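Quality-control log, excerpt.
Job 1 of 2 completed; input and output follow.
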Amino acid sequence: MRYKLFGKSGLRVSELALGTMTFGEEWGWGASKEESKKIFDAYAEAGGNFIDTANRYTEGTAEKFVGEFIAADRDHFVLATKYTLFMRRDDPNFSGNHRKNMVQSLEASLKRLKAEAIDLYWVHAWDYMTPVEEVMRALDDMVRAGKILYVGISDTPAWVVAQANTLAELRGWSRFVGVQLQYSLIERNIERELLPLARETDMAVTAWGALGTGVLTGKYNKDASAEGRAALWGSISEKNLRIAQAVSEIAGQIGRSPAQVALNWVRQQPGVMIPIIGAKKAAQVRDNLACLDFTLSGEQLARLDEVSHIELGFPYDFLTSEGVRDLVFGGTFAQIDNHRN
């Protein structure tokens, strides 16, 4: 395992993060405590130090398990958790991005985790109600109080992230050092705005869903039944199955699993890119960890890029078209060495 600086910070995190949404069986499909510990141990033994959880995962059980698992060497691990999602249904102040929910969520997470502070605290999702200045000031207050060390934001539009960090820098508050986003060969929409924003402003990207809700493992290509191809968050489509087939073919050629190939495509994207791996069994996480043993060739990356290509749309495709470039640069575009690209 190698380590990366987490965006515009000095924090060192492992090149794969361990997701813990599967820790606990309250949602009907997770791992038992015993199996969760095996998953955690396999990751830690490989050198992993970056643990990603959330207050809502398995009704709080995931945080409790994580707190127990890291207790023997708490300061070794980079502990990340999140707030926003509801913890008490039908109570409007037990959800959302606002200060009251942030404070009570943080205190509850600290108790479940048996920790004095959170290394990285994520805004889990944007609620479109709380003013951005309230969120950023409240997060900064928690940093100054010693409850959290760094802040990040997940599942939020690029314009909100840009506004938040601009405001934080202007007022001397803690800025977001990372964004957590859905990203895989079958979900590349963040390439339009969120990824360019992250790279331009030196934010790390932790990518969830790197296996495309299981589609990129190839299991839905093997099972052609209606039940086997049941829609998973809209991820089953003929295009996505073609992408999964290409992943499986490359995996077969190099003697690797499709999951490892899919993870490496994400891992090898530019910028600080950290896939989140999760599993219900220790054997699955060990297979995922083996992606660190190799890299995809330029030819293999190009094939995967081609089969999964998306149109960026307006204004991106417009601005990079030959006609517009000629109008903007007067025929000199190819003569300019742009060190920012």
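Job 2 of 2 completed; input and output follow.
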Amino acid sequence: MLIVGIAGGTGSGKTTFARALQKTMGNDCVIVPQDSYYVANTELSFAERLKINYDHPDALEDDLLIRHLHLLRQGQSIEVPVYDFEMYARTSQTTTVEPRSIVIVEGILVLSNPLLREVFDLKVFVDTDPDVRILRRLIRDVRKRGRTLESVRSQYLETVKPMHEAFVEPSKRYADLIVPEGGYNQAALETVAAVLRQYLLDGENRLIATTRED
């Protein structure tokens, strides 16, 4: 199994890149979003949940994500949490994810945690102009997450931008590959896909060689 971490700022195109990569690789590949691992916070009121800084690493339950990735590597299925972005809380539902040859973990902070970085076999950072990123986030949050224009603006200035500068941007130094413009960079997509295909081929060859020796 190859576990790939794909990071990048909000609206960078990392999710688009991850999905394009998954489509290219087919059934051999599955995506585990870091966003699913926001701390549950079900014991807090809605007003209290609104005050949380969701762009800080402490807002994420990385310990659970790490345990789940180890289980996948051991050939076991996992139950990925389902997070409600309108209520700012984890639901009681989960999504079953089965082991695959390639597991992609995507999220803004996947490269900021050294313990999580240790799990990845390949680390990718999607690098996109800040103006493009904020426009993409604005459209996404209003259309898909039930946010108002004012709430998106306030959150960006108060937490998103400073947390990007403090945690996301510095994590770029840990990337094995830096991809400009995310899912719209076809050349980068083909390059990463070629690396993953070679991994799968090498794995099959090792399996054949071991079988013949037995």
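Post-run check on job 2. Confidence is low (pLDDT under 50) at residues 207-212.
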